[in-house]
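Much of the work behind modern protein science is quiet bookkeeping, done one molecule at a time. The fold becomes a row of whole numbers, each drawn from a learned catalogue of backbone shapes. The protein below has been through that process, and both of its lines are reproduced in full.
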Amino acid sequence: MTQPLILVVEDDPDLRELMTVSLANSGYRTVEAADGDSALERFHAHAPHLVLLDIALGPHSIDGLEVCRRIRRHSDVPVAFLTTHADPVDQIVGFSSGADDYVTKPVNHRLLLARIAAILRRVNGSGRTSDPTELTAEGIELDLVARTVRVKGTPVDLTRIQFDLLVPLVEEPRRVVTREQLVERVWGQWYGTDHHLDVHLSRLRQRIVEAGGPRVAHAVRGVGYRLTS
């Protein structure tokens, strides 16, 4: 089996080398980039399974947030920020740009490898052949195989996280899904703070409403979320 390919985007050459050696020793293939433009070029050229992305990429480069936004225009490949920007506001902005994970430096490399493995498991290990392949509720149509969404017949582009949040809500539209159940379905045991879930749900609502659909992820106080009110 071909080992996952990870794109490492880091402007510090010593840290970039340390990360690629650590990943290679753990069985991953790697491709490197030192700035935003080369990151996007290598992303499209090599089609990595995951992107490890610094935010600050030097004074003459677009930053990692913009790199992530541009990747999200065309792909739902997992993106994990690895950065010194530790403020909660920075983390919210990072997740809002489309990131799947946000790790602050300095980081224990064993922990980083565990986070990478968890992301790749979530992406590659979901779904059973006996499960339904399409879901419909409140004018929202999900194709679970193609991972596409239509609202009243209109295609809607969602990020991987937004799609994965919508699935359990549409599966049982009358049932309340707890925050913990949503987190477990989408992120596993770790996802950050409550703000991260709120940001992704807010973006999901915005996409669905803009397409003419209902206001999804209706909050039921003290319990969780239902598809609509």
